[in-house]
Design brief:
The protein has about 400 residues and is mainly α. It has helices at about 10-40, 45-70, 75-95, 100-125, 130-160, 165-180, 200, 205-235, 240-255, 260-265, 265-285, 290-315, 325-355, 355-360, 365-375, 385-390. The longest helix has 30 residues, at about 10-40. The two termini are about 20 Å apart.
């Protein structure tokens, strides 16, 4: 019994590190891409379009990736994704026009869908059921930590060296992930035949958590794509500092609070994390100075750090091993759509009305996310809070 409750297995540690490196590759480029597009003669609106296309391709691929994962192809899918993450950054080096940059960006979106859906499903396989939320929180810590510290590293490499060094380093992180992949020893997963249809591509039980996450991620997509440019234009501390502070806060949240979702459900995170992100956007829009900039980073770190793993656990915790691929892909589709739409909407709002108006308008997403949970999510059987209160 004690053995079945062990969380930190060899495979679990390896898949966490692999996922961290995959997201380092992805986010180093996401946070610097508006600058790269500008160097090719593009605008914020075009940079937002690039973010939307990236996420669109990832979303288009994820349901099929989930179906293939549920058919037992864990290793093959992860291998293909890592190959794409290694190769695509080199494409940017040779992309002299925006069209080619967009093409390579979309191929990398497909590679991320393969890699990240596979690592999330492998993590779901190796986490003990009784510690599922805690385990997904630890797994998600790698994603969130990379999401917060990769922009700082990407901006440093871009400003201190050039885009060639930035792209080479992004590719290098995926090379290390590939080496660790070779050390994974996965047990075969018994997979029932899954005909290729809509029901096999999407997990209905994951829809409530995924929809709530999608709306929340609109705000995070805006931050990831445009916070650094906003800070530079306002004379605020660097975007790198903002994301570094976020990374520290994320680490604290995951190490101290992640286990409470197993005991109390996801509700506490939905309410408090949306409130924190809403407050961060208000500070950035209405009182932009050095002190509020740091405070906004702390609040955003708590908001993203707490909500994303809690909702992913809600989306996946009730799935059987043969359904985890589709449950993870459904949630990660929402994640990608939220970030992509958030970047695209933010870019259009900035071009039309400026950064302050963008922050004010997009903060409404946090209010909507909470309302969706209150009137829908917490009453759905997929809710961990519902299960705890009803003895399910």
């Amino acid at each position: 019994m004690m053995r079945s409750e062990k969380l930190w297995s060899r495979n679990f540690v390896l898949v966490i590190i692999i996922n961290f490196l995959v997201f380092m590759n992805h986010i180093m480029l996401l946070s610097t891409f508006p600058f790269y597009i500008e160097s090719l003669g593009g605008s914020e609106a075009l940079a937002g379009l690039a973010a939307t296309l990236f996420s669109f391709i990832a979303v288009l691929c994820r349901p099929f990736v989930g179906w293939m994962l549920d058919s037992g192809r864990r290793r093959a899918i992860l291998l293909a994704g890592l190959c794409g993450m290694i190769l695509m950054p080199f494409g940017y080096i040779f992309a002299s026009v925006i069209f080619l940059a967009f093409v390579f960006r979309m191929v990398q979106g497909a590679s991320l869908a393969l890699s990240n859906t596979a690592t999330a499903t492998i993590a779901s396989d190796v986490i003990p059921p009784a510690r599922f939320s805690e385990g997904m929180g630890m797994f998600g810590m790698a994603t969130a930590l990379a999401t917060s510290c990769a922009p700082a590293l990407g901006l440093y490499l871009m400003n201190s060296f050039d885009y060639t060094v930035l792209f080479a380093c992004a590719s290098g992180s995926a090379v290390i992930a590939m080496i660790l992949f070779l050390l994974l020893k996965l047990r075969p997963v018994e997979a029932a035949p899954h005909p290729l249809n809509v029901r096999a591509l999407f997990a209905g039980s994951a829809v409530p958590a995924s929809a709530i996450a999608l709306v929340f991620m609109l705000t995070f997509g805006a931050l990831e794509n445009f916070l650094a440019k906003y800070a530079a234009g306002k004379g605020l501390p660097s975007g790198g500092l903002f994301f570094a502070i976020m990374a520290v806060m994320l680490l604290l949240v995951r190490l101290t609070l992640g286990k409470y979702a197993d005991r109390k459900g996801e509700g506490m995170f939905v309410y408090s994390c949306n409130a924190a992100m809403f407050a961060a956007f208000m500070l950035l829009a209405l009182i932009p100075n050095s002190v509020t900039f740091v405070l906004a980073a702390i609040l955003a770190g708590y908001g993203f750090g707490g909500l994303e793993p809690a909702l992913q656990s809600m989306a996946v915790h009730g799935s059987s091993p043969a359904e985890r691929g589709s449950a993870n892909s459904t949630f990660l589709c929402a994640y990608d759509i939220g970030i992509g739409l958030g970047g695209g909407i933010a870019g259009s709002l900035i071009t039309a009305a400026g950064y302050e108006s963008m922050f004010l308008i997009l903060s409404a997403a946090n209010v909507i996310s909470v309302l969706m949970y209150v009137f829908w999510g917490r009453h759905d059987p997929s809710s961990m809070s519902y299960a705890l209160h009803h003895g399910v």
